[in-house]
Amino acid sequence: MKRVTILFLLLLAASAQSFAQCAMCRATLENNLSNGNPGIALGINFGILYLLFAPYFAIAVIAFFWYRTSKNNALRNSIKRHFAG
Predict the structure, then answer these.
(1) Residue 32 in contact with residue 38, Cβ under 8 Å?
(2) Per-block mean pLDDT, blocks of 10 residues, the chain (85 long)
């Protein structure tokens, strides 16, 4: 339980630093858009989508391998039962 509490506090401290960057990014993007340069804003939006997609992709890959392994194990067990009985 003590490890979970320490981990939670570390994650909370790390997230406080990330909130400060949002204001700086927003100010930079607003400044560039007002000067007529939408390139940086498009790059930031692509980065946000990339960071949003990455965890879902990792979970999907893990789920695929888990499904494939369980399907192969079920097939092996059914073959063993067929020849054993």
Answers:
(1) yes
(2) 79 60 74 80 79 92 96 90 79
